Amino acid sequence: MNVLLIGSGGREHAMAWKLAQSSFLTQLFVAPGNAGTAQVATNLKLDVTNHDAVSRSIKKHGINMVVVGPEAPLVDGLVDHLLDCGKHPELVVVGPRKEGAQLEGSKAFAKAFMRRHNIPTAGYGSFDGTQVDEAIAFLDTMKPPYVLKADGLAAGKGVIITEDLEEAQRVIRNMLSGESFGSAGERVVIEEFMDGIECSMFAVSDGKAYHLLPSAKDYKRIGEGDTGPNTGGMGAVSPVPFMDAEFHEKAINQIIIPTVKGLAADGIPYNGFLFFGLMKVGGDPYVVEYNCRLGDPETEVIMPRIQSDLLHLFENMGAGLLSEYHLQIDPRTCSTVMLVSEGYPGAYKKGKTISVPERLEKDALLFHAGTSTSRGNAVTNGGRVLACSAMAANPENALKKSYALADSISFDGKHCRRDIGQDLL
Ligand code: AMP
Ligand code: GLY
């Protein structure tokens, strides 16, 4: 089977690494990929926003399966194009159509979906550009801190939380005028604040059945002790000690099953990943957000824990046979520490030569994120550069190995958080 994986981050390197081990794989292509995916697959220079170009590449390379890593192509309708163009009748696609991707692409859609299917989440109101006065009036009925969300994709920056009513009013006016988040902010969701701890669950679904993938916690802020601006994620740990069996059970019954059933009841086909961003409030799970893909860097701790053949899982998904599949998970802990470029999540320099030890310690895995190859060398090519993953019997030892790997790598301006997972020990 020939597989095309779309994306270029640490998530895609981790998936490519896992897919490359499949006994069902003939050739793996990654578009556009990075210096890490080039070690396990063939990188294709492909503009994935050009749906016809992706379609031509599928024909040219005899691709049987497309796996979409990031959310933008899903929300943009790449899957609909590939399935509806009539050129790839046998193609299996891992990733939902545009309609299902609205779970991530529109906060208002996701909130209405949860309300409709009685899925626990924060109370909210949703307003468009013609409803500025209504939005301000609704805000007056809320208690601080105020949680304000731009409706559309905003690369993790579309959520503003503030204690200050006047600032909240200003943010709403700016969003609704399209000033602060462009078209993504032309609708806003105003939400109740949930006071709890965040964690994530992941599933793969064929629209009828689902399989849980390992749970994870990620560390979003740039600064130690969860301070400073949000990033894509500075590290992750799986499993999460505070997500006990009772919490899992509640999340499955109150959130995951109702979500899969809700999609089916609404007539929304869904082949792909479901990412449940959860808040644990007094022992109970609430949905903070849905994503229609796997997390990054969560994937860098999920993939090493999957013992089953990932491609076989995807084939079962594509055939609608997920319910018959048994997924084997490694009970050990996997942690990852992100090495980022100095300045990230603000402006940073690219093109710094990366030096990596020739041999990695047992159970240590280095996944490339923002890297590329220049004259045979790996160089930095993004804010998040490398994910230093490691497996061990417990979080303490996994983290020790992740940090040993992080410390053995050098590039100009290398930075990481030193406290990943410390709250879990
Ligand atoms: P989102 O993009 O919806 O996941 O929001 C980004 C981040 O904002 C989340 O990871 C939470 O840390 C925080 N957040 C979002 N919604 C809420 C809420 N209702 N209460 C508390 N924190 C929230
Ligand atoms: N690490 C969070 C995300 O992928 O959205």
Task: Describe what this molecule looks like in 3D.
The protein has 13 helices and 22 strands. It is globular and about 60 Å long. The chain starts with a strand and ends in a 10-residue tail after the last strand. A hairpin with a 2-residue loop joins strand 19 (371-374) and strand 20 (377-380). It is α+β, with helices and mostly antiparallel strands. The model has no long low-confidence stretch (mean pLDDT 95). The chain binds adenosine monophosphate and glycine. The site of glycine has 7 residues, from loops.
Task: Briefly summarize what is shown.
This protein has 425 residues and is an alpha+beta fold.
Number of helices in the DSSP assignment = 13
Shape: globular
CATH topology of one domain: Rossmann fold
**What distance separates the N and C termini?**
42 Å
Q: Give the rounded overall mean pLDDT.
A: 95
Portion in strands: 25-35%
Radius of gyration, in Å, reads: 21 Å
Helix content: 25-40%
**Cofactors and ligands:** adenosine monophosphate, glycine
List low-pLDDT spans.
none
CATH C-level name of one domain: Alpha Beta
Strand runs, count: 22
Q: Largest sheet at a glance? A: 9 strands, antiparallel
CATH architecture term of one domain: 3-Layer(aba) Sandwich
The SS-based structural class is alpha+beta
